Amino acid sequence: MSVLSDCLYIHASNSGLFTDLAVLPLHFTRLAAKLKIDEKYRHMKKPDYDRLYQLALKQEGFFTANQAANCGYSRQLQVYYVRKGEWLRNVRSIFRFKYFPVLSCHREDYIVTQLWTEDKNGEMAGVFAFATALYLHNIIQTVPAHLDVIVPRNFRRNSLPPFRCRFFRRHLDSNRIEIIHGLQVTNLLWTFVDLFDVELIERRILIDLFRAAFENGKLNNAQMQAAKLSLVQRDRLMKALREIGFVGSQSIVMDD
Question: Do 61 and 96 contact (CB within 8 A), yes or no?
Fold first, then answer.
């Protein structure tokens, strides 16, 4: 035993605190462990409520476990706030501030589904497309039975999606995506291009919706000129344009 340990032991013995020499090593072990824990937490981020709230504000009050961790909330703190009732656990690793205004059930479905697609880098990998995109663009009024979501080809999750979803694995360029109410959605032109490719909607109905999009000004010739289409996509779109009598079909730019 070191001189320091001897001194501590003698002092403790005289004080009546320790009566067994074997107690001291245990005491120092616990003290060292506590100091190690304190050192660990000294370097952790301090919980930043304002930052987390501003993030949740863009997501209708929802946030993921990873987003909370990046704002300084450890897993232990996350469990604490859930047990305390200040955070509501919606699905696995997705929370919501308890006192945030309640939205319609459909809007919540979309927000939670998008957060569920969060990748390991903290980015939302899912993009709403096809019939779901038509609904979000206010082209159709009926809520689709499924949420159509495009994800990268390497997308993986260990848990089941929270709602009824149809996933389509493909690459999406950023210029085909826009943000609607905080949601990633394929822009309207590419939504129709995709629908003409996969034919998830009866063609007669799809052509009527395509015509309506032009009549109400949501699609125009400038968008056609800016689109970079493959040969197959161009042919399908031009056929649809001829069906609705759109005179600018010859102006479509083809991607070589």
Answer: yes
Could you tell me if 237 and 207 are in contact, meaning their C-beta atoms sit under 8 angstroms apart?
Answer: no
Spell out the alpha helix ranges (H) of the chain.
3-14, 23-42, 49-57, 65-70, 75-84, 105-116, 130-136, 188-198, 203-215, 221-226, 231-243
Q: Helices then strands (H, E): number in the chain?
A: 11, 8
The neighbouring-strand residues paired with 168 are 150
Q: Is the pTM of this model over 0.90?
A: no
Q: What is the mean pLDDT of each run of 10 residues along the chain (256 residues)?
A: 40 44 55 51 74 93 95 96 94 92 78 94 94 96 93 89 91 92 94 92 95 92 84 90 72 48
Backbone dihedral angles phi then psi of residue 247, each to the nearest 5 degrees: -75, -15
Q: What CA–CA distances, in Å, run from 11 to 3, 24, 90? A: 12, 12, 56
Domain ranges of the chain: 49-97, 108-244
Do 236 and 212 touch, CB atoms closer than 8 A? no
